[in-house]
Design goal:
By secondary structure, the protein is of the alpha+beta class. The chain contains 1 helix and 9 strands. A 4-stranded antiparallel β-sheet has the order 1-8-3-6, with no helix packed on it. A 3-stranded antiparallel β-sheet has the order 5-4-7, with no helix packed on it. It is globular. The N and C termini lie far apart (about 55 Å). The relative contact order is 0.25. The N terminus and C terminus are likely disordered.
């Protein structure tokens, strides 16, 4: 491959991230009318190889975008979701879930966008029972 040709994987990641930002922007604009008293929080989560996060939930909706690595998300009332770079999934408010890294050699990195009532964006441990 010639040196002047862009790295195909890097270009694809940039396109996916740009698309994600556009969709998120549309989501923000669409929800702006009822946005009073709501807040957005964007966090990155990194799980070490072979580990899992504690089962938990947030009081608001979540949008999860996979930056790198491989794993899966187990959420109450939904089938297990495979996570690979570029994958996007959503979670409903108070939907208990756990994020797991399927790789024994590479970290799993995800970008999480949280939307909830102002002042309520905080993680809560979930019991083993489903949250309703």
């Amino acid at each position: 491959m010639a040196d002047w040709m862009p790295n195909k994987e890097k270009t694809m990641k940039q396109v996916i991230l740009a698309t994600f930002v556009m969709v998120l922007g549309a989501f923000v604009i669409t929800g702006a009318a009822g946005a009073e008293g709501r807040e957005w929080k964007v966090v990155t989560v990194e799980l070490a190889p072979g580990t899992a996060d504690a089962r938990h939930f947030y009081p608001g909706a979540e949008l999860v975008y996979v930056l790198e690595g491989a794993g899966y998300l187990e959420a109450d009332g939904k089938p297990k979701v495979a996570l690979n770079p570029g994958a996007v999934t959503t979670l409903q408010p108070k939907q208990g879930h756990v994020l797991k890294n399927a790789s024994l050699t590479r970290p799993l990195k995800v970008l999480v966008v949280l939307r909830s009532q102002a002042g309520s964006v905080r993680r809560q441990q979930a019991d083993v029972q489903p949250i309703f």
